[in-house]
Amino acid sequence: MTQKLKGKTALVTGGTTGIGLATARLFNAEGARVIVTGKNAATLDTARAALRGIAEVVQSDSADDADIEELFAHVAREYGALDVLFLNAGIVRRGTIADMGEAEFDEVFGVNVRGPWLAIKAAIPLLRRGGAVVLNGSINGHLGMSGTSAYAASKAALRSLARTAASELAQQGVRVNVVSPGPTDSGILEKTLSPADAAAVHTALEARIPLGRLASTEEIARAVLFLADDDSSFMTGEEIVVDGGMTRV
Question: Domain for residue 76, yes or no?
């Protein structure tokens, strides 16, 4: 590894599984001190074993005001400052506009939009000049895919939030960008669908991707690393789409 993040401190929300876990491992391999958060007790225990010696694993609900406040207070106490913030935590709730309940819609926006907004707000005093914030978006924010109204709208809102945050944090010397994955073998579908239904969705998505497969979590992590380190030092307010050509070809 090239140690692109040597001596830096990085926080990854939702870092106990999927893209967040892969990114935490890559950040550590590139020299960073890494903190990851998670909410689910089972995945927290698994992540603590998998990330022993790689990252500190902190139980924190990415949509809870008090947890967010305590998380960044912990970072301030234990690490002093922050160089990289990867706001990865997010949820998917599927359902048509006609069928989805208001509580589900509010849950999606609470985790996917309000949570990152609160996290950026709490992180501002800790972010060093030259630091980077990366938000995990989605190509769904650009599409009109049936059954994804809440999720797609939340990711479009997150893209807008990144532009505003980039403008507001520029004078502080902090960059804010978005990575928007296409379909990724991250396990997120398996959290809400049966194994058979998840496999069927994977197959349908693969047929729409010019490269003919889903992304690996490691491939998305490498794009996050690019936005987090100095290789992208003149980029802010930008979005990198990593979707195998699904929305571009």
Answer: yes
